[in-house]
Amino acid sequence: MAEHHRARIEFDPRFTVADVPERLFGSFAEHLGRCIYTGIYEPDHPTADADGLRGDVLDLVRELGPTMIRYPGGNFVSGYRWEDGIGPKAERPKRLDLAWQTTETNRFGLGEFMKFCRTTGVEPNMAVNLGTRGLQEALDLLEYANHPGGTHWSDLRRSHGDEEPYGIKLWCLGNEMDGPWQIGQLTAHEYGRLADRTARAMRMFDDSAELDLVACGSSSRAMPTFGEWEAEVLANCYESVDFISAHAYYEPVGGDLASFMASAQDMELFIDGVTATADAVGAKLKSAKKIDISFDEWNVWYQSKMADSPHEPWSTAPRQLEDRYSAMDAVVFGSLLITLLRRSDRVRAACLAQLVNVIGPIMTEPGGPAWRQTTFYPFSDASRYGRGKVLRVNADSPSFATEKYGEVDSLHSVAVAGEDGSITVFAVNRSLETPMTVEIDAGPPPGTGEVTCSTLHDADPDARNTLEHPDRVTPEENTKVAVEDGKISVELPAMSWNTIRILP
Ligand code: AHR
What we know:
Helix content: 10-25%
Bound molecules: alpha-L-arabinofuranose
Strand order of the largest sheet: 21-20-24-18-17-14-1-19-23-22
CATH topology of the largest domain: TIM Barrel
CATH superfamily of the largest domain: Glycosidases
Number of helices: 10
CATH architecture of the largest domain: Alpha-Beta Barrel
């Protein structure tokens, strides 16, 4: 008989970890490759609306369910003049984008982004340029965006057709300023000072508790300055910011699939490290305040393959970073989502990087169709059902050996209690080959006691959705669910993402 694992999950709806923050299901749209142009924005597309937004993409974004979008970068923002993207399109300048070696037409800018946010019902998360620019330009942008009227910048916005202020609450103070690839890279001390000065000036415009400011943390846990960077930056701006950012991308290295399946271990260590560092700075400052994490870039990204598809330097909206995700990638991706939920006591905002075409869950062809990548499904499941309170879960499963993280549990899971009385368990079987039966002890069965399970799995871990076969990999109803005497058991295939719903 083939090997089969047995695992157990137990929780009690009375014991919670945190409420799931609305901002946990954010995404990210950068002026990079075809994320904006021919992704979100394509005025000539047959489905485009009057604002040039692709209707087919808008529908898929609504189905995906992001709650917030970070914009306009990314590395792009560190060379961006936000004024280039406002006002009559014919007058907007073309510029070189040094970050991605392309030409930016500025046909899409802040006003168009706000239309996109309103149409899809997402919160804007705006980044300011602290690479080539600084405090004054950040204040000008804030005034243009959020002041009602009667001043230079706010009246300019009104003259551009947006009478009402945008009311943007969440702002990133630069992007990855620790990275040598960043235009205008700074030392931790330089950046910490700049972030503090910028944040304090922004709060002179808006001193409400609703203005949330994110300082740049490390670009990854592998950065040589990881830890020191956070400590020095926060020592300089602890009282003026609300969040410190974290960015992480994963891919298999040297064919080590076991470690890849366990990528969430790295994300957990990252969260632990940033939390401990931020709390240590707070303790030293004798501050009552806690700094939360904005995990504002996370995904699977095959960075090692970037050089395989070079683009024509200084071309406009070339194909860049257009990773095609496999069934296996979607399972790792789901596991990252589970970690974000499990740690939502301190991760109070997060952005899947990115939204369309560029390492995105949605793909498009210019003038052609749009479709869902495999990673679309774990995100839409989590955004739809992962709302409410994260429960304290005890889980027990066989482990597997990994080169990077040692022994790792095969089962990775989290439970979320919804306001409607439902409980959703997101579970990943990280084993490469072995299916698993999970017993779930959720206490007395709530409501009807009816349980459903949807499973994303493919016998071919490398299966992908493509233009020709857009629905090759989709979640399916898992019929191997049983409920007996209030005990639930579900069979999870090897390498699978599962959404188990205990209905009210
Ligand atoms: O998401 C792609 C890039 O990754 C972003 O521009 C940058 O912030 C990160 O390095």
